[in-house]
């Protein structure tokens, strides 16, 4: 592994500045996290990646979120499959992405030629290794990989109710561009079954620096479009002005286990607050306290 990292460093010295900078940032993040991030090719290691995804999404052996044979086909066709390994060789995280059309060029109705992008379909950190910077190291490796191939952006979807994911994506500098109700339809895995699959689309513009999008907290109650009451139930407010905040539950994953009905109410409340605002509004970041900031265009 070390030999490969040294080789990447040598190659990076000959790359244009944005590419070299992306590689340097990714390598520094991996060193801080104590992992080596590399593309996965061998069938054995692809099987390990499948196992990690099955563990994280709590699926049966015969129903992995993505199987090793599909991963092998993606690798063979030039897509992104990479993993982070600890110093003793343990699999700590993995991510998968494939080529796509940039969402911005796709929105302009044919007035601009489609531009190559990557859609990051799935990524996971091994249980027990969260909050060690491993997820950031994996995403930054993915960013460098895409920049080296001349891609314009990276997109991915995530559950808008999961605060830690929203905060993580905002810290990376991703913009939140669209809200999709029931994006995947009904899901059967252990984390999503019975809870719908609303998703928020995140986008990294690879032509711009990755600047964190941490928003300020609201002052007063007038701009709180959605907030919890004293019992943790969602309460809708009204918009006054050109800014509005939409709160999320403190821990939706735990809430889904102990009170699935209340968790479902939060999903509908966040959907009702954010989906109609896609016309004429943009999501301008996520606060440390767990709210999306919406700004009128």
Task: Tally the helices.
Answer: 9
Question: What is the percentage of strand-forming residues?
Answer: 25-35%
Q: CATH top level of the largest domain?
A: Alpha Beta
Ranges with pLDDT <50 over ≥5 residues? none
User: H/E order of the elements?
Assistant: HHEHHEEHEHEHEEEEEEHHEE
Mean of pLDDT = 88
In CATH, the homologous superfamily of the largest domain goes by the name Gcn5-related N-acetyltransferase (GNAT)
What CATH calls the topology of the largest domain is Aminopeptidase
Between the first and last Cα atoms, what is the distance in angstroms? 48 Å
Q: Helical amount among residues, as a percent range?
A: 25-40%
Oligomer: single chain
**Major sheet description:** 7 strands, mixed
Radius of gyration (CA) equals: 20 Å
Name the shape in a single word. globular
The assigned CATH architecture of the largest domain is: 3-Layer(aba) Sandwich
- What is the domain tally? 2
| Protein structure class | alpha+beta
Number of strands: 13
Strand order of the largest sheet: 1-2-3-4-5-7-6
Task: Write structural notes for this entry.
It is a single chain. With 297 residues, this protein is α+β, with helices and mostly antiparallel strands. It has 2 domains: 2-158, Gcn5-related N-acetyltransferase (GNAT) (Aminopeptidase); 215-296, no CATH class. It contains 9 helices and 13 strands. It has a 7-stranded mixed sheet, with helices on both faces. A 6-stranded mixed sheet has the order 8-12-13-11-9-10, covered by helices on one side. A hairpin with a 3-residue loop joins β12 and β13. α2 (17-33) runs antiparallel to α6 (134-148), α3 (43-57) packs across α4 and α8 (252-258) crosses α9. The radius of gyration is 20 Å and the shape is globular. The termini are far apart. The model has no long low-confidence stretch (mean pLDDT 88).
């Amino acid at each position: 592994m070390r030999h490969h990292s040294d080789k990447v460093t040598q190659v990076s010295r000959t790359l244009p500045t944005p590419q070299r900078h992306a590689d340097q940032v990714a390598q520094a993040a991996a060193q801080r996290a104590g992992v080596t991030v590399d593309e996965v090719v061998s069938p054995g290691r692809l099987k390990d990646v499948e196992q990690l995804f099955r563990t994280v999404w709590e699926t049966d052996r015969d129903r992995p979120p993505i199987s090793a044979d599909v991963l092998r086909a993606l690798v063979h066709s030039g897509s992104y499959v990479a993993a982070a390994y600890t110093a003793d060789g343990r699999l700590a995280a993995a991510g998968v992405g494939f080529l796509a059309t940039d969402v911005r060029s796709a929105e302009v109705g044919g007035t601009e030629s489609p531009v190559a992008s990557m859609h990051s379909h799935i990524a996971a950190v091994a249980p027990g290794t969260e909050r060690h910077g491993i997820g950031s190291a994996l995403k930054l490796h993915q960013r460098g990989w895409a920049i080296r191939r001349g891609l314009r952006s990276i997109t991915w979807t995530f559950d808008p109710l999961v605060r830690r994911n929203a905060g993580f994506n905002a810290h990376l500098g991703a913009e939140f561009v669209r809200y999709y109700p029931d994006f995947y339809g009904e899901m059967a895995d252990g984390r999503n079954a019975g809870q719908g699959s609303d998703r928020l689309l995140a986008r990294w513009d690879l032509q711009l620096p990755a600047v964190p999008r941490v928003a300020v907290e609201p002052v007063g109650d007038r701009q709180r479009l959605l907030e919890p009451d004293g019992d943790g139930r969602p309460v809708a407010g009204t918009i006054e002005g050109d800014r509005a905040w939409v709160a999320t539950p403190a821990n939706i994953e735990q809430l889904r286990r102990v009170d699935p009905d209340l968790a479902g109410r939060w999903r509908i409340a966040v959907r009702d607050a954010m989906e109609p605002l896609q016309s004429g509004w943009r999501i301008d970041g996520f606060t440390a306290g767990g709210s999306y900031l919406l700004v009128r265009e």
